[in-house]
Amino acid sequence: MAQSDPNLSKAARARVEAEALAITLFESHPDFPRLQVRMRERMAEAERNSPADARYYDTVARLQYVLSRFEIRAETFWELVSDIRWQNAFMVMLDIAAGVAWAEHTGRPLEVLRPASPRADANFDAIHAKVQEWTKKGYNRLESVHRNITGRNIDRLRRECGWSFDDLAEKTGLDKKLVLGHVNEGKGAHPSTLKIYADAFAKGLDRKVTVSELKPAEPEG
To answer: What's the whole-model pTM score?
Structure first.
């Protein structure tokens, strides 16, 4: 890791260290090189398709172009979010991307040029609205991943029992469509429903099966 600048404030040093850790984490993912290549291809395409006015700083066209580049960057890192550690790193990358977007729009970094007019404030808010939007998308993706893990666990235990989906519906007393929704569509299951599954699998396998075996534990930050 790079040496911290002794002239930076404590908060600034913490931000630099968080950024370095987030970048290192994403670079460690085996899909990172492929996604980076695709990101750069999409950036080049966005540049080719941008209107002439997008070349000039602080124009409406420039802001729309910059926001499209932010979306491309955000989606690239969003695809790698799989647990809370990656979500936290993703949020750091979104903050970095917001700073880049402001510099791309104005021609100067936020540390040098802060919003100083109602129009500049609105442009700044438009960039940060994207940060909030993609932060929420990251959490939604995390929730979906967890639901899908639950579905895979239900299906794994169903197969261990040697049951068809009809059998599982009969053993649990749950509607088959609901069971298929949990397994195939990642639909969330109420804790009481998970308890029904666990009890049925415990009888079918003649061993203890708990709700925690079905539902993934919340990862530690």
So the answer is: 0.71
